């Protein structure tokens, strides 16, 4: 495993981070038991992963808690989250604190390393900062939170508007950012400033569902080519990203997707979710490989760098 420092938090973290939400929720969504999911967390730790991301809506805090029973607490960096608004209802500071306390109970720990406000839409930002921010600082003072973070919601915020604002407010020590081969806005919008200010970054959406589904990529390209948003040839092939797969290049589209984000300057931890032990191993292997060849990386930037809103799928629980 390779390790890096998560911005000014000073935490030493693996460059591969285990996401326990996403479409797989550690396999719980496809029928795995909590014990099987907890085994997968331990497999990840055996591979050197020490960053684990969870959240109440994922239903995986208990799974992480089970795994934590057999890992010395100081060997892992645990991140969880609180909702800010759901179904039109704004969460009060008291409710956020109660959510934190419940997370600590499920995780079986008395502190979380990073506590994030979850999927903060641009119109939620003022409330998150002004009403919830002080409550998070109070919990940090009590030692229940080590560092305070914010996750954007790429599903509605294609251009990183929340994080662009949050860059100016020192309460946030960590950001979770969406970025992938066809959603590259953070290169200009976020990473230069996070690097300058020492804000740690957690990368989400590297694969999501689009890059695990080659026919879907071809369909998206046909639609975008028809609208004149990408070069015509990309809409005329069943394998628009085939140019990435060659000797000395990527082995497949998922390998390309992880290597593309991993080596983007400003990215600290690449989160990925899986319910499959083999995917866990191959994803870690991809994240430890060298960058894509520079001509391929440059071609991805030139072909897709201008796109917004591609492959940012929603699903319940995010
Ligand atoms: N706003 C937020 O706070 C927010 C939003 C989204 C995500 N997140 C965090 O980020 C983490 C990552 O989420 P994500 O949105 O990037 O999606 P993801 O959960 O990483 O999705 C990857 C998808 O691709 C599949 N996959 C993974 N590796 C594969 C492989 N080697 N071959 C074939 N299929 C593969 C997975 O299914 P398999 O089970 O079959 O492997 C999964 O369905 C989440 O778990 C969560 O912790 C946070």
Summarize the structure.
The chain has 318 residues and is of the alpha/beta class. It has eleven helices and twelve strands.
Task: Report on the architecture of this protein.
Helix 1 (34-46) packs across helix 2 and helix 3 crosses helix 4 (125-141). The protein has helices at residues 34-46, 61-68, 93-107, 125-141, 161-166, 186-189, 191-197, 214-226, 253-262, 277-288, 294-304, and strands spanning 3-5, 12-14, 16-19, 51-53, 77-82, 85-86, 89-90, 112-117, 145-151, 174-178, 200-204, 269-272. The strands form 3 sheets. Strands 3-4-5-8-9-10-11-12 form an 8-stranded parallel β-barrel, surrounded by 5 helices. Strands 1-2 form a two-stranded antiparallel sheet. It is α/β, with parallel strands linked by helices. The protein starts with a strand and ends in a 14-residue tail after the last helix. It binds NADP nicotinamide-adenine-dinucleotide phosphate. NADP nicotinamide-adenine-dinucleotide phosphate (NAP) is lined by residues 19-24, 53, 118-119, 151, 153, 176, 204-209, 212, 254, 271-276, 279, 282-283, 318.
């Amino acid at each position: 495993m390779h390790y890096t420092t998560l911005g000014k938090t000073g935490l030493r973290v693996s460059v591969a981070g285990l996401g326990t939400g996403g479409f797989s929720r550690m396999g719980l969504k496809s029928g795995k038991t909590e014990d099987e999911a907890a085994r997968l967390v331990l497999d990840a730790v055996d591979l050197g992963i020490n960053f684990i991301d969870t959240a109440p809506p994922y239903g995986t805090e208990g799974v992480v808690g089970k795994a934590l029973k057999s890992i010395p607490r100081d060997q892992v960096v645990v991140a969880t989250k609180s909702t800010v608004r759901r179904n039109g209802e704004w969460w009060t500071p008291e409710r956020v604190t109660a959510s934190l306390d419940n997370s600590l109970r499920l995780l079986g720990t008395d502190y979380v390393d990073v506590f994030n406000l979850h999927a903060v839409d641009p119109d939620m930002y003022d409330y998150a900062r002004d009403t919830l921010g002080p409550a998070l600082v109070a919990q940090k003072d009590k030692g229940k939170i080590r560092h305070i973070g914010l996750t954007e919601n790429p599903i509605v915020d294609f251009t990183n508007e929340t994080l662009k604002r949050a860059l100016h407010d020192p309460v946030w020590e960590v950001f979770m950012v969406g970025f992938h081969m066809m959603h590259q806005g953070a290169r200009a919008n976020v990473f230069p400033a996070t690097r300058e200010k020492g804000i740690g970054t957690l990368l989400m959406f590297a694969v999501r569902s689009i890059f695990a589904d080659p026919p879907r990529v071809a369909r998206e390209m046909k639609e975008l080519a028809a609208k004149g948003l990408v070069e015509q040839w990309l809409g005329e092939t069943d394998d628009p990203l085939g140019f990435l797969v060659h000797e000395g290049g990527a082995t497949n589209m998922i390998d390309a997707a992880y290597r593309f984000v991993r080596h983007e300057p400003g990215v600290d931890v690449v989160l990925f979710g899986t319910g499959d032990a083999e995917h866990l191993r191959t994803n870690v292997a991809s994240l430890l490989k060298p960058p894509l060849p520079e001509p391929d990386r440059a071609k991805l930037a030139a072909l897709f760098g201008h796109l917004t809103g591609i492959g940012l799928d929603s699903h319940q629980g995010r």
